[in-house]
Each structure stands twice: as structure tokens, then as C-alpha cells.
Amino acid sequence: MNWTEFLPSGIQLSYLVAASLFIVGLKQLGSPATARRGNQLAAVGMLLAVVATLLEQQVLNYGMIFAGIVLGSVIGAIGAYRVEMTAMPQMVGIFNGLGGAASALVAIAEFWRLLGTGANLSATSLVTIILGVLIGGVTLTGSLVAFGKLQGILPGAPFIFPLQQPLNALVAAGFLVGSGYFLVEPSNLLLFFGLVLVSLILGVAFVIPIGGGDMPVVISLLNSYSGLAAAAAGFVVGNNMLIIAGALVGASGIILTQIMCKAMNRSLLNVLFAGFGSESGGAAVAGAAVGTTQTVKSIDPEEGAMMLGYARSVVIVPGYGMAVAQAQHTVKELVDHLEGKGVEVKYAIHPVAGRMPGHMNVLLAEANVPYPQLYDMDDINPQFDQTDVALIIGANDVVNPAARHDKGSPIYGMPILEVDRAKHAIVIKRGMGTGFSGVQNELFFKDKTMMLFGSAKDVVGQLSNEVKQL
Known about the structure:
This protein is an alpha/beta fold. The protein has 18 helices and seven strands.
């Protein structure tokens, strides 16, 4: 019996098993309790898909492929161990960009192969190649710009100039016209690489008008784009497994994007084109706040520790300030001391806190915070009325009461964590700076709000020491 007769069926069966593992793994990623196992299942599925593909396709050089696998594994392992949890958004951005780059390169390589062999360049092949180049190119440069904003290499504020959107529309229209002409003259190399260049320009133009505070939405959307780019690459090379995997990533990414937009009470179009959080607008509002007679109440760590240590219930609200200071382990230490004194402690997680979806959950999981202590916005908000102290660590816009009543505020209508309903609120911040929206937080000026100024890690460490001595 010749086993090669059963190879095609075995390969398709392997693809089916791999796709099933992807779906089950994706489902398990929805809960921190099962996320690790889900990631492992998806990784096994990807390994199975890669092996099956190598057996199905005609491979010119297994040695080069093996070298690429080893090199990629080494880089990935080093990155996984060395990159700080606070830099996960940047790492995700880079991964999205590399996925887009790979898809664009596959499309370019397939076009070059068909052109070199003199094969018939059908309209279907050309359309899939154009889509691969477009989606991959936009994902690559868009992700690099997002990485630059998150890393501080580029300004986090939106970059806006006159007639920006009409110019972007003109560039996009130029790509469509060029693509139409390319379908008629597919042998025009100058036109093809012009389309590649325009796709890269569109990626930059897509992300630069978006403020750093909207990066959770942008990262989710770019993640979706990277999946669509992979699906386009699957159509280019005729690989069903790549199409399925790309479609799953694309669909999950766009669903997550919609969830993030809903959490901010803004449409996707508003996030992409409104230039939210521009420096000029923020400076004007902040300046107006400084010019008023409003004052804040400041306390020291000893006073804060007494408020926390003698409370019955405390809700901790982590924000980007906690992430920047890498204070999650210190926060866990403080909570251990509070629980040792009989204080009930919960964590309130806003969907867009941080710089990527689930940012706070990941950081707190790293500090071994039990998942049942983490409450989402809808579950925790009704409990603030019975909370003695709300401890806000580096969060800003997601706790600003102006979102409920100030119709002139850029964040009006955005669902917030209603910490102002607690009996007392302690806010840990370096200073009185505004959040990504550029508006001052009216919570800071309320009578029951106490400000604790300083780096989150230092201040929480001092609170922990003081609570321990009570």
C-alpha cells in the first residue's frame, strides 16, 4: 500500500484538526483561568498546520525554512522573556506589523513568480495580490506608527494638518485607480511597486491622526487587519488553512474593536477621524481649570494608610500610571496587608484602561492577583455606594465624573468607573496632568477626594509599609 495515496486526505484532515484547535483555543482565551491552555492548544494547531503545509507544498529548500524557524524561535523566546509586561502593547503592535509585512511579501513574491514563469495572470490572482499588498502594507506601517506612539518615539498626540482627510481620500482613490489599471496591464512593474508604496503611505496616514489614548482601539483594529492580510495571503497561495486562521483573527479583532468603542461610547469612525485628544484642545481646557479657584486636598502616605487600614471595603482602580511605574507587585503587597487586617479588597477594571485591551488584567495576573477579585465596570459600579475607600492608581479619564453630566466635555457619554460614589477616594498621581482626552478630571476637586502625589510604585510601597505598622 502506497502511503502517498492517503497524503492529500491526511493533510486536509490535519487542517481540520488545526482549525478546530484554533477555535477552541480562541474560546479559552476569553478567560484568564483558561487562557494559558487556550494559547497552548492554538500553538499546537499552528504547528500541525505548518507541518501539513510543508508536506503539501513543493518546498525548494527545507534547510532555509528550518533556519527561519530556529531564528524566529530564538528571537521570540528572547523577546518573551526580556520584554516587560508594561511594554506588551508595543510588542503586540510589532507582531501585528510583522504579520502584515509577511502577507505583503507573500503577495509580492507570488506576483514575481507568476510573472517570471510566464503564467497566465488571471483577474482573480491579480485581485488577491492587490488585496494582500494593500492590507499587508497598511498593517505594517500603521503598526509601526502605533508602536512609535506607544514607545514615545513619536508624539502621542494626534498629528493633524489642513485638508488631511481629503488628501488621504485622494491617495486612497489613487490606489483604486492604479489597481484598476494594473488589472489591465499586469506586466507594469513600476505601477505594481507604486501600489506597494502607496499602501505603505496609507498605513502611516491611517494612524498618525489618532491620539495615543486611543491606541487600545487601534491595536485591536490592526490585529484584525493582520488577520485579514493573512487571509488574503491564503487566497494568493491557495492555502485553505491560512484563509481560516486569518479569518478567525480578523473576526475576533473586529469584535474586540467594537467592544472597545462601546466602552468609550464612541464610534469607530470617531476614533479614526476625530483627532481626539489633541494637544491644543487639551491645553486650553487644562489652562481654564488652572485659572479657577478650585483646590485639591493632599494627604501623605501615613494618612492614606489609616484611611485604607481602618476601612471595611476598598476598591482599587488601576490605570496606565500603575503600568508605567510597574507597581502591580507593590499593589498586591498592599492588598495582602489590608486583607490581613480584615479589609475586603476588590479591583475595578475599565475596558480601555491602559494601552491595549486587557492591559490591567495582564499586569495584575503577573502579580498573582486572584481573578475573582477583578470586577468589570458593570459589576463594580453598583457597589461603589457601599465602598469606604476607592484607591485610584494612575487612572484619569475612566474615572472622570464629567463624562456623566458635562455635555461640553470630549468624554461626555463615555461609561466610567463611578468612584465618586464611594465614601472616600484616594488618587495616586505624579501631578495634576490631564488624561488622553486633554480635559482636567473634576474628581480631583471633590470634597471627599484626597490626592497622593508621587510615582505609583513609591507611593503604594509607602502605603504598604504604613498599613503593615497599624
